[in-house]
Amino acid sequence: MHQAVDALENELARAFDTHPWAPILRSVPGLGPILAARVLAEIGDDPTRFTTAAGLRAFAGTAPITRASGRSHYVKARKVRNKRLGDACHWWAFVALTKSVGARAHYGKRRAAGDHHNAALRNLANKLLGRLWWCLQHGEPWDGHAAWPDLPREAQPAAA
């Protein structure tokens, strides 16, 4: 069974690498061949499908919903969303914590602001997804300096 799984993963990576967007997706910290293929499968490869990053974020369910009435004000997660993409973004954000200094710093900032683990991960996924949208729209690989401008230059990895 392990050999069959390895063979399937290798074939998926080989097929994924033939896609024109594969180099961009593979340059993103936290997206390996399987997770990148999952994200691509859910967002599709039509560059006009999402005209704004906000549209993609809402589709994935990472964009928060703010409810306010009088003195009451709260922020909650979206219920109507693409659950497969939302799940992939959750895992992407989780993996990015160990692959990107900027992602770890952003997550830490959200936790310090009072977010619970899942809310901080969702916020991080929202940030990652917005930057991925920009990269795909402009046909450029991930750039840690552009994604995390608040970090000092020496703390960021060089652009891919």
Task: Outline the structure in words.
By secondary structure, the chain is mainly alpha-helical. The chain is 59% helix and 6% strand. A two-stranded antiparallel ribbon has the order 1-2.
Distance between the termini: 35 Å
Major β-sheet annotation: 2 strands, antiparallel
Task: Look at the helices and sheets and give the structural class.
Answer: mainly alpha
Q: Give, in spatial order, the strands making up the sheet with the most strands.
A: 1-2
Order of helices and strands: HHHHEEHHHH
Helix content: 55-70%
The stretches of 5 or more residues where confidence is low (pLDDT under 50) are: none
Structural domain tally: 1
Please report the number of helical segments: 8
- Portion in strands: 5-15%
How big is the Rg?
16 Å
Mean pLDDT: 89
Give the overall shape: globular
Number of strands: 2
Please supply descriptive tags for the structure shown above.
160 residues; single chain; two-stranded antiparallel ribbon; 6% strand; mainly alpha
List the helices and strands and how they pair.
Blueprint: H1 2-16, H2 22-26, H3 33-43, H4 53-60, E1 65-69, E2 72-76, H5 83-99, H6 101-112, H7 117-138, H8 144-147
Antiparallel strand pairs: 1-2
Quick rundown:
With 160 residues, the chain is mainly alpha-helical. The protein has helices at residues 2-16, 22-26, 33-43, 53-60, 83-99, 101-112, 117-138, 144-147; strands at 65-69, 72-76. 59% of the residues lie in helices and 6% in strands.
